[in-house]
Amino acid sequence: MHKGLKWFARIAGLVLTAFFMVFFAGEGLPEIMKGNGELTYFLPFCIPTFVGFLLAWFRPYAGGIIMILGALLLGSYFVYHADFKMAMVFGIPALLIGLTFIASVHKKLV
Prior knowledge:
The protein is 81% helix and 0% strand. The protein has one domain. By secondary structure, it is mainly α.
């Protein structure tokens, strides 16, 4: 197991999670309070990414797979709404962190 990759993925995942939380607190809560529920449709697409990140702390391979699936789901949500920039902003970092967790499990890197 590559501890450097594992810790890099953990720290990057914490930064990504903090970004999501700040985004939700700044943009989501005021919109929900106003009665505009548009962001509530976005939240279920974030859950697999968060669950994968939490699982990856203890089981990096399984958590990495779930993070990748969550990133694809999150990216597909934005692609469906024709917002390709947001698909890249939200999907690619989670995808790369999931791949890093998976790479940290392998003994040899090619």
